[in-house]
Amino acid sequence: MAVEKKVHERFSFSCLRSSNGRDGSSIETSRNSPILAEPSEGGIALVTRRFPWMGLACLLFCSSAAARAQVSLYTTVDLALRNSTSVRIATADMEKAAAALSETRDVYIPALSIGSGIGYSYGFPVGQPSIYNLTAQSLLFTFSQPDYIRAARSGLKASEHALKDSRQQVILDASLNYIQLNKTAAELAALDEEGQYAEKLIAIEQQRVDAGIEPRIELTRTRLTSARIRLKRIHLDNDATALRETLAHLTGMPASSFITDSKSIPPAPEFLPGGELNTRVFHSSENVQAAYASAQSRQYVAFGDSRQNLRPQIAFAAQYNRYARFNNYDVYYSHFQSNNFGIGVQITVPLYDRGKRAKARESKADASRTLAQADLLRDQTGEQALRLQKSLAELSAQAEVAALQRELAQNQLETVLTQLQTGNGQAHGTPLSPREEQSARIEERQRYEDSLDADFELTRARLSLLRTLGSVEDWAKSLPKN
User: Checking DSSP bridges between strand 70-71 and strand 259-260, what pairing results, if any?
Assistant: First the structure.
């Protein structure tokens, strides 16, 4: 018994938080935990040598406890941003846009290449007898290239806004799923209590029916209430499983590891009514900014394509050749030499090209379409923000009503409990019974669940409005880290 007591004391520990993700994040445990401490003489090492199965069982217990530790909202959002596929796609698009910008600029830098045309010839030589040649080519001037550079720069700007927009969507998804999972867990706990009260009420009603005090319809109503509680619990349990799976896909953590921490969820910020919202939509929405940057890029492309005709294009070229003497060139050509070098510019003026004209019209139409799409997105985003803001007042009122109904149910429960303890009855001398107590407890739990639902809907509307205005990432940065 003494050995078992020592083993239990040495292997007891508390895990603080689990954040083990696919990106290499580690599970945080208490540094004061004996599992991280050095084993003392005659302690853990001795026990594990004599009873190796105890050490293995303890390690399995520690791993299981760590995997089921609480995960804060901040950790969830951070892991989602690191693991999100949409963020990785947007990052790749931004890198592609940056490469496209470099490509448009690099046409002014000479491109170097080396080659060879070595071969044997008999009689009069045919072709160029170069052992090797070095060529440099670049663009010196064209009216269209500066517009293409501006277009690529606007495209990079659009991809940057799109990346920020993708990050904000991931933050919103992770936050709402986490908060909803926390709400669902609270509702499941309340339903478990409600189910216990319903079972007690069924037993009471069964006794009253058997005694002939109540008709059987009252028992049927009570059983119906219990069945509805079980149905709602099944529905919420399925929702919790789906939410954990979604969070697992977002963060890369195992779905079974998500235990929410209510203290890590701050209240959503309030919003000022009126004209401030309209001024923030255009300047703060990353999605709208990305659309207008993309439209500007298409306009630059269209302008550059329109200046392809009737305007000179100047290119630079230089070449060095090392000619061979075994191709009989020195026999048939006078003043032959092996080392040869040339440098110059090439000027081209397109006079008539219907293909380029059609391309210019196509680019112009594409630019007009993209600009119209940006205007449409701006209007839709403004309307969505306005609807969300207007809904906040209604949702706030619903949350207040739900909170007052819950408070009223609590007061009624306290009144019933007080009357049962003091032996007082209702009006007209009707005595209270345990049936009224269980009914009051069920009513209080139902009002509590309604209050949780109303608060979540209000939080979802506020965070969605933050997402529309492009400020949800600022809210995420203010989350408590512990």
Answer: parallel
Q: Which residue has the tokens 């659009």?
A: 158
pTM (2 decimals)? 0.78
Residue 409 in tokens: 């149910």
All structural domains of the chain: 2-68 (no CATH), 79-102+156-180+233-309+368-477 (1.20.1600.10)
How buried is residue 344: exposed, middle or buried, by Cβ count under 10 Å (0-12/13-18/19+)? exposed
- pLDDT value for 35: 29
Using CA atoms, how far apart are residues 3 and 20, in angstroms rounded to an integer? Answer: 34
Average pLDDT score over residue span 17-42: 36
**Do 58 and 43 form a contact (C-beta atoms < 8 A)?**
no
What is the spatial distance between Cα 182 and Cα 321, in angstroms, rounded to a whole number?
A: 75
Amino acid at 4: E
Tokens of 454: 């109303």
Q: What count of Cα atoms within 13 Å lies in the side-chain half-sphere of residue 151?
A: 20
Considering only CA atoms, which of 254, 232, 258, 235 is closest in space to residue 178?
258
Please state at what angle helix 276-284 crosses helix 434-469, rounded to 10 degrees.
Answer: 60
